[in-house]
TrEMBL record:
Protein family (similarity comment): Belongs to the DapA family.
Protein name: Dihydrodipicolinate synthase family protein
Domain of life: Bacteria
Span of the signal peptide: none
Alphabetical list of CDD domains matching this protein: DHDPS-like
Pfam family, one: DHDPS
Coiled-coil zones: none
Length: 310
């Protein structure tokens, strides 16, 4: 039986690029180190936020390996197994295992077409698990190329295999999340909400933490919320969740470029806002409100917010 993953903040890592859109490996490693320093329970690289569909198969594996090296065992690292066929996904998962990840994450829309039932999804997943024995897996309900939410029966199947440890839930529905969390009870499969505005509610239902945009830019606040939602003064808890919701909404329009720009003005990181996925730049009209938000939050006196974002 695999060891359950830790509770808390699981950022979906951005991929820093240089001006020529090559990967900035120095900033990749600096970003991974920063996320761990600020309290992340684990890191999820080669995700949609990492621009995984705009990376080559070789780059995806190298990215996972570089992050594993930068983290150096301090927290678990997981990464998506990406491919257009069972063979490609299994090959990607095997490569990720060699790179040292704790779990390979299956991307839910890549395992079946929109018109195929979950029985076909399970059949594909079983083939991948059989081809990569000894490796733990996760599932991410990624919205691209289409959003495939798994049925409760499929979630029950995953929990019963003993091979899955990470579930990034993008249902954005408290009742769905509560039912899924109930099904996962007693298994090694942990539930991580992707919607910051409902995080406290999902944690109260027994969820393990959060994996989404807000943790990419404020990992320390997400970590604080996960650890203190039930014990801290509820006014403080509500304020932190509201601030995180506002911050996440502020970077949505030009994401992931906006998140990179935000970090360049709110942390020790110096990554550029260059993106392969969405190559439009961040100009003064889009950038100044992000700078203003970062400056405002610096002086807001929020619990656990590191002065200077070291």
């Amino acid at each position: 039986m695999p060891t359950p993953l830790p509770d808390g903040a699981w950022p979906v890592m951005l991929t820093p690029f240089r001006a020529d859109r090559s990967i900035d490996w120095e900033q990749v490693e600096a970003y991974a180190d920063w996320l761990v320093d600020l309290g992340s329970a684990g890191v999820f690289t080669v995700a949609l936020s990492s621009e995984m569909y705009d990376l080559t198969p070789v780059e995806r594996l190298e990215l996972a390996g570089r992050v594993v090296g930068a983290v150096d065992g301090r927290v678990p690292v997981i990464a998506s197994a990406v491919g257009g066929s069972v063979d490609e996904i299994a090959e990607s998962a095997a490569g990720l295992a060699e790179a040292g990840v704790t779990a390979a994450v299956l991307v839910s829309p890549l395992l079946a077409t929109p018109d195929e039932p979950d029985s076909e999804w399970i059949r594909t997943a079983e083939q991948i698990l059989d081809r990569v024995p000894g490796l733990d897996f996760g599932v991410y309900e990624c919205p691209v190329p289409y959003k495939r939410l798994l049925t409760l029966e499929t979630v029950r199947w995953m929990s019963g295999t003993g091979r899955f440890t990470f579930f990034k839930d993008t249902s954005h529905r408290a009742d769905v999340m509560a039912a899924r969390i109930d099904v996962l009870a007693g298994s090694p499969l942990r539930h991580y909400n992707a919607e910051i505005s409902s995080l406290v509610e999902s944690l109260g239902a027994g969820g393990a933490g959060f994996s989404g945009y807000a943790a990419n830019i404020y990992p320390e606040l997400v970590a604080w919320l996960c650890a203190n939602h039930a014990t801290a003064p509820q006014e403080e808890v509500a304020t932190v969740q509201q601030v995180l919701s506002i911050a996440e909404h502020s970077i949505n329009a030009r994401y992931p470029s906006s998140a990179k720009f935000f970090l360049a003005h709110s942390s020790r990181l110096t990554m550029s806002s260059v993106s392969r996925w969405k190559p439009e730049g961040i100009g003064p009209h889009e950038g100044q409100p992000l700078i203003d938000l970062a400056r405002y939050l610096e002086g807001a006196g929020l619990p656990a917010l590191t002065p200077g974002r070291r």
